Amino acid sequence: MKQKVLIVEDNISLSQRQKDWLEQAGYDVMTAMREPAARALIRKHRFDFILSDVRLPEGDGISLLEWLTKEKKDIPFIVTTEYGSIPDAVRAIKLGAKDYLPKPVHREHLLELAEEIFRPLATVRTKPKDLFRRTCPKILEVERYARIVAPSDMSVLILGANGTGKESVAQGIHANSGRDGKFVAVNCGALPRELAASLLFGHEKGAFTGADTAKNGYFDMAKGGTLFLDEIGTMPIDIQSMLLRVLQENTYTPIGSDRERMADVRIVAATNENLERAIKEGRFREDLYHRLAEMEIRMPSLAECADDILPLAEFFRERFSKELKKETKGFSKDAIYRLRSYRWPGNVRELQNRIKRAVLLTETPVLELPDLNADSQTDIRITEKTPDILPLKDENSEREAIANALQACNGHREQTARLLNVNSSTLYRKMKKYGIR
């Protein structure tokens, strides 16, 4: 089922353009020009994402957001802002808006934000992102290994915490591989168990109820290119067996078919899970691990690359200052000290998000510590190491651990997942299992 998006925008041409972009990317899109019309649509339909201009001819985005909060409708809300309405964007962020987009809205920025919200099952990347060149020796070692292994057909397993840049390394391997096919990134943590085999390998017409037409899978999409299996540690054990066979024999069979196809695909996998523990607990096949890890690359945390923190912070400050047309001139001494002493559990992704919001919210050219803490569930002044959380095992301990972690993180699910050392998809699945809201 397609993700449903509501665009609230009174500029008809802009609204249509955004609608076209999102529909081309596979979303189901509806539009409204005024707040009352938006409320009526929200009452009638279930939306997964709302993109709203702050200023509307009748009502405004702020009051729409306040109404959603009052109605307890937990829908990701993004505001679009003109340069002159930055204070409105600040207010929206403080009221719970997930993010903002400055006008003019660019296609790549909108789709990147939508992708971050929905974490789609699979994404085709056409080119690597323009990234900051880091100088940390551990990162340079990662890049050296990636360059060495890229021209080969060896499977690569990238290990590391969330936000460390595992997909960027995978894209770099593909870019230097000499393969002319696509780079297809698959979010294994979001694959529905009952559809995982069909999504990966495709199916024939009539293979199962609802299979009205034949459909290619991700292996077909990535033919001649690279298939990036992110969050491989969450893959169901029966699908692991099917993947192992593909890696061993270089062939696969679509569901409902009796004809094998050649798997002309380079496999790069990544996980933030402890696979040795998963193997001992019977959640991950040891033989698959050895097939995937013909070359193993470990991504260092941002805390292990302390000398990269300030250059990265400056890179993000300049980028978002230009994007928001806000003139900033660096960080205060206190902010610099905190940037370096904070342990950054969310790694580069957390640093980027902190700086983005700081640039949006600052009222002075120099970014201060309060700007970095703004709209944050975790105070950046906390420098002590968070104690390790025991792995989730039996149901009673799982339920208690999840409830306690949610309370500690003020209900922030992504931070709760990091605290419990599980991915977000696993956390949502367990919350649903135990009836935790």
TrEMBL record:
GO terms for molecular function: ATP binding; sequence-specific DNA binding. Keywords: ATP-binding, Nucleotide-binding, Phosphoprotein, Transcription, Transcription regulation. The keyword Transcription regulation applies. Signal peptide: none annotated. Pfam families: AAA_lid_14 (PF25601), HTH_8 (PF02954), Response_reg (PF00072), Sigma54_activat (PF00158). Residues 132-360 form the Sigma-54 factor interaction domain. One of its GO terms (biological process) is regulation of DNA-templated transcription. The modification 4-aspartylphosphate is found at residue 53. Residues 4-118 form the Response regulatory domain. The keyword Transcription applies. PANTHER family: PROPIONATE CATABOLISM OPERON REGULATORY PROTEIN, TRANSCRIPTIONAL REGULATORY PROTEIN. This is Sigma-54-dependent Fis family transcriptional regulator.
